Amino acid sequence: MNVRTAAALLLLVLLTVSLVPPQSEGAVEDEVRISIPELRFDSSRSSDIGSIDMSSNSQRSLKVYMTNELSVPVAVVFDTSTVAKTATVSSLSSSIDVEPYSYAADELIVKTLEYADTGSFVIPITVYVQYLDGFGESIGYERALTLTVNITSLYYTDAQYNKFFGFIPNDLEGPLGEPWFAALATLIMTILANILLCYMIVPLLTNYFGDKVTKIEKVRLKKSIAKIMSVLMFAYSLNLCAQIIGASPEICHVIGAVSVFFYVCIGAVLAWRIYVFIISAILKSVDDADVGGGLDISLLPLFKMIGEIVIAVVGVTVILATMGVDFAGILMSAGVVTLGITMGAQNILSQFFSGVILLSTRPFKKGDFIKINNTVYIIRKVKLMFTELYTWEKDQVVTMPNNTLTSATIVNVTKETPEFRVYVYMSIAYEADLAKAKELMVQAGMEHPHAVIDGSRTMPSVRLTDFQDSGIELRLAVYVDNFDDSGTYAGELRERMFELFKENDIEIPYTKYEITLKNYDGRRRPGDDLE
After folding, report:
1. Distance between CA atoms of 305 and 505, rounded to whole angstroms?
2. Is 451 helix (H, G, I), strand (E, B) or coil?
3. What pTM does this model have?
4. Listed residue (423, 421, 404, 389) closest to 494, CA to CA
5. How far apart, in whole angstroms, are the C-alpha atoms of residue 47 and residue 69?
6. Which of these, 58, 221, 354, 501, could form a disulfide with 402 (CB 3.0-4.6 Å)?
7. CA-CA distance, 531 to 524, in Å (whole number)?
8. Average pLDDT over residues 70-92
């Protein structure tokens, strides 16, 4: 191809390009489409995105897709507007780049304001699209879209405006038809309802458990519930009256927030009083019935502790929830803290849970005599972390961690009865009358004033237990009526058996040594070397 031919072809191309009309803006808009599948919106068909339902002080995200059918990349920018005291719309990205013949995704975040009014609000959204033409020039256009947000206010008062109790319309004429009269009537009726509740329904609760609690406890419960219910109903009526008179959302919100705090605190106190009253009545009932199931009034502190923890946790949770606290972060932080506490305070936690086990299973109670490693202790007080014990002589108080008790083998000597079997050992000579010795030992057991010989226990008996170097060992087994004095009774039995043996010539053997003295005249024998 020569130079002239090439120049002619280049000139022809330039003329062709200059004669081709530029692509219209509408055609470009059709080739850069915006769609929101959730609302079935496509910008090629309509500029109205659609409508969504939301409550005030909430947030919702909409997935939006930008499809580019041009041969050049484009940049899409969402410019949102704010409608005063209603809602805002924003995109996650300030600018979205879309490659040729491709698509990109982003999110539109719709937020309603805390004091937004109830109603339908149209929010305009302007979309800017920019790209470079074949000559490197920046070309852009804008497109107006609309989104309708149907808001339901959390503090909407029109539904309760000028209505008795918030739902009965005030159709009276004249001054009595004003909102203030509906609010005043609601307040008075709420007070009367509170009086009816305190003096009719509350006595039903106390009378149901009336035979299980004292009269003073019933009167105390009635008074405390009456006071708590009065404050609770006042807070409720104040919140309702503010809505009846048509107070602003800001005022209703403040009153509502304060009311929620009062509801939770007063409700917690009320729940605690009723809980303690019912638990006390139930435990007293079981204790009086003596069903032997391990439940009695001594478990009241444990149930009180459980009730305090549950009511406190629920109350704090409700208050934090009304304040919009993120529980996911709290739970995650609590998990980390709990792990650290568990690793660093294993012994303390072991003591605590051991105390819960001891209080719930109750292997012993106050005043019981127990044996731990053959040492006798008397239970003084069982606490969550440790147990206080007396020594048998009651001259010392021993504090023992609960995990030590739960891991040890404990013999509760007096769990079922204070009666205890005493074993007294005596030895007689081989030459003594064995049958007579046994008879005398049984007689000593039968004569003792604290021996249990009414037939409810095994009668006193004697057994030959050992053949010793110097005599025969016999053992007297006899039940006495009190373990605490069993040592004293054993000593008294030994004294009586010694007297009976002496009276009946029963020899008690003892070690005897025979010493033979030779040359006691002091003269030295021929073989003596000692000086």
Report:
1. 67
2. strand
3. 0.44
4. 423
5. 19
6. 354
7. 9
8. 77
Residue 149, amino acid:
V
Tokens of 316: 């704090």
Is residue 105 classed as helix, strand or coil in its secondary structure?
strand
When pLDDT is cut at 50, 70 and 90, the band that residue 293 belongs to is very low
Can you list the domains of the chain with their CATH numbers? 26-152 (2.60.40.10), 163-325 (no CATH), 344-412 (2.30.30.60), 420-503 (3.30.70.100)
**3-state DSSP assignment of residue 506:** coil
Q: How far apart are CA 482 and CA 398, in angstroms?
A: 23
Containing 333, the helix (H) or strand (E) segment is helix 327-344
Higher pLDDT, 395 or 319: 395
d(CA 352, CA 358): 10
**Cβ neighbours of residue 279 closer than 8 Å, sequence gap 6 or more:** 300, 303, 304, 307
CB–CB of 371/411 below 8 Å? yes
**CA–CA distance, 344 with 33 (Å, rounded to integer):** 60
The one-letter amino acid at 201: I
- Radius of gyration over every alpha carbon of the chain, rounded to an integer in angstroms: 48
% of the chain beyond a pLDDT of 70: 77
Stretch (H or E) spanning 85: none
Q: How far apart, in whole angstroms, are the C-alpha atoms of residue 205 and residue 281?
A: 11
Residue given tokens 């020039």 in the structure block:
137
- Check: CB of residue 462 under 8 Å from CB of residue 475: yes
Residue type, 375: T
Residue 69 CA to residue 395 CA, distance in Å, equals: 97
Phi and psi, residue 473, nearest 5°: -95, 130
Element housing 376 (H / E)? strand 375-382
φ, ψ for residue 433, nearest 5 deg: -80, 105
CA distance readout (Å), 303 to 266, 283, 361, 385, 406: 21, 10, 13, 16, 20
User: Could you give the CA distance from residue 46 to residue 49 in angstroms, rounded to a whole number?
Assistant: 8
What's 198's DSSP letter?
A: I
Q: What integer pLDDT is reported at residue 209 of this predicted model?
A: 56
Lowest mean pLDDT among 79-93, 110-124, 136-150, 206-220: 206-220
- Helix (H) or strand (E) run with residue 493 in it: helix 486-503
On whether the CB atoms of residues 50 and 60 are closer than 8 A, the answer is no
Cα–Cα dist 378/397, whole Å: 9
The backbone torsions φ and ψ at residue 390, rounded to the nearest 5 degrees and listed phi first, read -95, 150
Please identify which residue in the block is written with the tokens 């003084």: 380
CA distance linking residue 102 with residue 69, whole number of Å: 7
Residue type, position 48, single letter: D
Say how far apart CA 372 and CA 404 lie, in whole Å. 10
Residues 6 or more apart whose CB falls under 8 angstroms from that of 235 comprise: 258, 259, 262, 263, 266
Buried b (16+ CB within 10 A) or exposed e, 272-301: bebbbbebbbbbbbbbeeeeeeebbeebbe
Q: What angle do CA 434, 435, 436 make, to 5 degrees?
A: 90
Could you please report the per-residue DSSP string of 92-161? SSS-EEE-TTEEEEEEEEEEE-TTPPSEEEEEEEEEEEEEE-TTS-EEEEEEEEEEEEEEE-TT--TTTT
State the DSSP string of 352-366: HHHHHHHHHH-S--T
